[in-house]
């Protein structure tokens, strides 16, 4: 199928979301609701004024607002409600499996028990599976701009609930914090039976992607768009079938690409790399996964065949069970008609 699919067709396409920070789904409206509930004072007079701040010059300017706004998240119920709202929206946009990143260090340092964070999010995931048919799990992300000792401590705390975790990841400010700093904590997580992924090659150089693979032993690369600058790395990613979880609208908003029409998404796939489309921090970056698919179609062109490949790759690259993957691939078959 070479025709450009409609918005409704792209939303209906069964897919997995593999690069989604649950704190990054905090819409201004919910931020004000939770602030009122928890007695938190936001430095903005209205939802509209907060929304106006969602304009960024780079990754750090986004992170400053991201960490400040998440202060409204205080209780297990807050984390559950945040997750429920994301899952409802994701379900409406074709997501059938979601692997959610979360940043427990940013909450524990505010005095929030890690149990409240993990139980709130995982409880809502269980509800989503029951009520919406979305399977999924949690990926604990270490903040790379915090000391490695902090990452080690948060892993120890999280491993008291090992059944709640799919894996570990690495996020936050990239430049100046190479993956190799986290060699030991990733080894410990892998030894505990957890999957491993890492943000690399977003603002950082292609060498960070190589480190994430060789030093951290990751199974997927989050972002990874700067691999396009290194032909040998592209060949390796293709040969080793390492998936990239790409976030087109995020890359535009954080100015890692000048405009969506210049995004390397299709070029990465044409080089034989496994590529998926995701939304990253959709409340801040102007769109959930469906909007990312439609934006790619409008800026780069996206045939039904291409959209299907991206969706099938997302399912293949997920950490879902073999049986669940087969079920989801059959759902894509049905979408084709």
Automatic annotation (TrEMBL):
Known EC number: 3.5.4.2
Binding site for Zn(2+): 19, 21, 199, 280
Main EC class the enzyme belongs to: hydrolase
GO biological-process terms attached to the record: adenine catabolic process; hypoxanthine salvage; nucleotide metabolic process
Needed co-factor(s): Zn(2+)
Cofactor note: Binds 1 zinc ion per subunit.
GO terms of molecular function: adenine deaminase activity; zinc ion binding
Stretches assigned to the Adenosine deaminase domain: 14-335
Protein task: Catalyzes the hydrolytic deamination of adenine to hypoxanthine. Plays an important role in the purine salvage pathway and in nitrogen catabolism.
Family: Belongs to the metallo-dependent hydrolases superfamily. Adenosine and AMP deaminases family. Adenine deaminase type 2 subfamily.
Protein name stated in the entry: Adenine deaminase
